[in-house]
Amino acid sequence: MTTDPHLLDDLEWRGLIAHATDRDALREALTADSVRFYVGFDPTAPSLHMGNLVQLLTARRLQQAGHTPYALVGGATGMIGDPRDSGERTLNSRDTVKEWVGRVRSQIEPFLDFDGPTGATMVDNYDWTASLSTIDFLRDIGKHFPVNRMLARDVVRSRLEAGISYTEFSYVLLQSMDFLNLHRDHGVTLQFGGSDQWGNLTGGVELIRRAEGGHAHAFATPLVTKADGTKYGKTEGGALWLDPQMLSPYAFHQFWLNVEDEKVGELLRIFTFLTREEIEELDAATAEQPFRRAAQKRLADEVTTLVHGAAETEQAKAAAAALFGGGELRELHPGTLAAALREAGTSRAPAGTPTVDLLVASGLVRSKGEARRTISEGGAYLNNERVTDVDHVPGPQDLLGGSWLVLRRGKKNLAGVEVG
What radius of gyration do the chain's Cα atoms show? Predict the structure, then answer.
């Protein structure tokens, strides 16, 4: 299969290479032939998240350029977890990790092509780690790791004073062993991951050199941060999960829709497959008419479609429009409506509660008097219909999806009420 000679240029233009072992050697390898590469995902949670999405899409770019992916799910390393600056991880049981391995595998599969000459292969490092004896591990792997080099890793240095367990300290040996095994058994010569994995990535390259006399490559993608330098990947409800049961497609779409103008061009490069020309046009649109948010809208649509599919993207857009009067609320899928309202803010009320009391309970007004004034002045809406009677009581016919009411004060202040 012919490889794309411009792959590395595209990755660099998109800002996807923060570090590389030897860029010239990497370029030569990527243009000379189809390279077998791997990227790993530890199941330390029941779902992948925004940071993992960077790696999934980068793997897809490499495969589309003619290279062969090995997607590693860490059934072994997931039982330990890579050390973090914030402190020791809570160790999960084998049964929990096994369940999460299955969930993570199912999330990876849609992003890669498993057929053809560059078809992807899914592997689990538990397969070659579980039966390995301690003596063999120390002789065959540990022998190649100088402790002074391990102590020099940034995350280890930052944890030395507070304390780091031998379990987490030795994680680099396990990930490096993964690269060595894939190199021996499958001819894998390239590994990539996030920049926080750089010590582990280079550890694998070095282990292949020391143990096999072989040559391998590695590169790291940058940490994606907000304009103020803090980490992305959090919504008000928690991490930016890829699992729709943990974060609704509506909330996922809203996250991308609300990124800062200063960052939207960078995120378009990293998280979409739009061409350079398309992205530069959106950059210009942001500079000239930022209030139109053309780049954010395209970003939200593209990423939501990649992760959740085109139908969920359209539902998310329809829900956002309908909540503010630009569409028919009753046409929304009940699950999408519920997810959208939970993002806006919800309360509960028994059937037969007057609209005045609902406005207070929802937090849209502070008192019944203010609620009555809002209705009298024409500023109160129920399911996008203006409420004109201060004594109005919603009935069963008003319930959306069987249990929801949408309240609005003015054009932008919105809340959901679950009745029952």
Answer: 26
